[in-house]
Sequence to fold (829 residues):
Amino acid sequence: MQRFLPLVIVLALFAVFLRMMTLEDRNPNEIKSVMIGKPVPEFTLPGLLRREAAITDEFFKSGQPVLVNFFASWCVPCRAEHEKLMQLANEHGATIVGVAYKDEPSAALGFLDELGNPYQRTAVDRDGRLAIDFGVTGVPETFVIDGDGNITYRHWGPIVGDGLEAKVLPAFEAAQ
Amino acid sequence: MIAELGHFALMIALAFALIGAVVPHIGISRGNARLVAVADNVAIGQFVMVLAAYAALTYSFVISDFSVIAVASNSHTAKPLLYKISGVWGNHEGSLLLWVLILTLFACAVSLRGRFLPARFRARVLSVQSLLVVGFLLFILLTSNPFLRLDPAPVEGNGLNPLLQDPGLAFHPPMLYLGYVGLSVAFSFAVAALIEGEVSPLWARWVRPWTLAAWVFLTGGLALGSWWAYYELGWGGWWFWDPVENAAFMPWLAATALLHSAIVVEKRDALKSWTILLSIVAFSFSLLGTFLVRSGVLTSVHAFAVDPARGVFILGFLAIVVGGSLALYAWRAPKLAPGGVFGLVSRESALVLNNILLSTFAAVVLVGTLYPLFVEALGAGQLSVGPPFFEYAATVLMSPLIVALGFGPLLAWKRGRLGRAAQIVLPALVVAAVAALAIWWQTVGGAVMTAFGLGLATWLTVSVFLEIAERIQLFKNPEGAFRRLRGLPRASWGMSLAHAGLAVILFGVTISEAWTEEELLVMAAGDTAEVGGFTFKFGGVAPVAGANFTAVRGFFDVSRHGRTVTALTPEDRLYTDPVMNTTEASIYPLLRGDLYAVIGEAAGAGRWSVRLYFKPFISGLWVGSLMMMLGGILSLSDRRLRIGAPKAKRAED
Fold:
């Protein structure tokens, strides 16, 4: 029966390939977050808006779920997802914390003036330290944080297409 | 107009290939010689048509016809002509067309060079080859047509990835494809033999030169690729165990095993079923490589743009070709009568050991490459398999191979005597042991693996010479030795040269791994640094401009004991279309090692970050690969492989 062995191995291999290729939204370049289930890292960052107070990890322990969105004015995909963020804030009443990643504060302000501000609080992460602590691989990335300050979900890349309805909103509702 | 002609030529080629895949079988079953002969005409016809299509695409690239999508997205008017031509295969569509071109070229070559094959068998081989052409042409025409138009046409193209704008890389894909696709011939021969239900020593004699040619190209392709990585990527490495590198390495391992097992079939009429399986597996590895690059299941520096439709198509094609041929194997293999028997200690056994080790290694590389995918498929998260795994496997599996390589060629066919072979190679063992101990003592016990590696390389080198000495009876009967030396067949020289090439590669790997010196520095003009006993004096930087890039060029004067050795001028290039940074390392090869300099970013105040290396004997890698290729070519030119040539020709040799 050993003459069937190569055939069996190859068929099993192809089954795996087919599964991996037809798997929905699988991106081989995406690196899974290791932060899921972990508390928000400790941090203190200056606020972006005029007279906005510094923001710390204490903000996430209010008992309400919060979204954290890393963005930058120089990032084109951020521009693409902005509309969905506005929708999240206005229609679904989500609390979103924006983090301006490696950006000039004036440029980030200009970006929000032009497209609208979906964020309840906006932090300035000029050297990208907070992004490192969150394990961000590139902007934009969005994290869902539950009422106890634990990260429950990470959305990789821009929220476009049905990404909001299919992924971010369910994760956000689950964190309630 | 030209692009449409190319498109049309591909359709005609598809029609030819369909005829070629079906009609010869009908001819054989009906005993109609004219239908059988169709295979030959079709082989030539499809080659001419694909060549015409390829020429049309090349023309579109050369004249920068941006109304063709493939040209617009991968070319640019400011690109040098060489890269306009190499840009044809620098993208998914064009590289597939090149693949098919080579496939039809090999079919054509089998038809022309294989006139001595029985017509019936040749027709079977060509029809299998045509079936492969059908699959690839359908793939091109349905999912990856290089002749699609763009309306309105852009004024300028997107340009070619600057990393690919390099002479070394311009010839890396064609070389590798010649190797990959060359293995299709062995595959077609194997499938034809399974259909016919017969494998004879003559079969192995036909298959061997094709496999050898493919192996030579594969070796060259891999060597070019690693050479390119070494000087273009700018961090001094030459092999990364990237999934796609592995995908090219596995066919090489399988082809190497096949080369050796086919010898046993030819000489002793044994290992037939295994050799057939190996022929199928070797080409399947080639197809797997194509699939991995183009389907997007794995992430790799080599991956083309991902399109799920393409992935599914090529997986389906793979399933038909690989699954079909293996099913045929499972069905027909029992018909292949086992041939000659041989003793436990014999040349056959040595070649079986070679095959076991090489195929185990190929299997380990396969598992290591696909393991992350399996883990992810089982939903157990993400992980990656890194170089330590592969390096460990290579050491464990290749060391016994090299030890056996010293003995193997000295054992007699059928029943050898280990004692006699051991007696002959005893000097090699002594020299190797002394060399290893000397190095171990020199480095004060610090580098056992280095001593071991150099010991192995020495063992292999000396035993290659001892094998030649034994063949010409240098010690037993010295008078006629020189005459016998001249009389040695080229195949035997080829074998010795290729084996010695492996030893040189082993020297290169071991020495450069153990004694590379590396300095990462911030230097200002006038600073000097000592690396590997050489003094690098930094002379500052100057801006330079090329056809489609601007660069910062650094100047280093390298001297040793006050005497100037050379000047190194590494560059940090910024390409404009598309915008991308590349590092151009400056390398000066010396007999004892390479001087290697890379210039990085400005560190302010006229200072620059630089990396300086001294890499001892790293050239051994490329010299050794070249020796392997030459060995293969020498064997190919051996009279024995040119069977069917008229006897009269013998006088010329």
Remarks:
- Confidence is low (pLDDT under 50) at residues 644-653 of chain B.
- Chain B touches chain A at residues 273, 277, 280-281, 284, 291, 295-299, 308, 311-312, 315, 318-319, 322-323, 326-327, 329-330, 333-334, 370, 373-374, 376-377, 381-382 (CB under 8 Å).
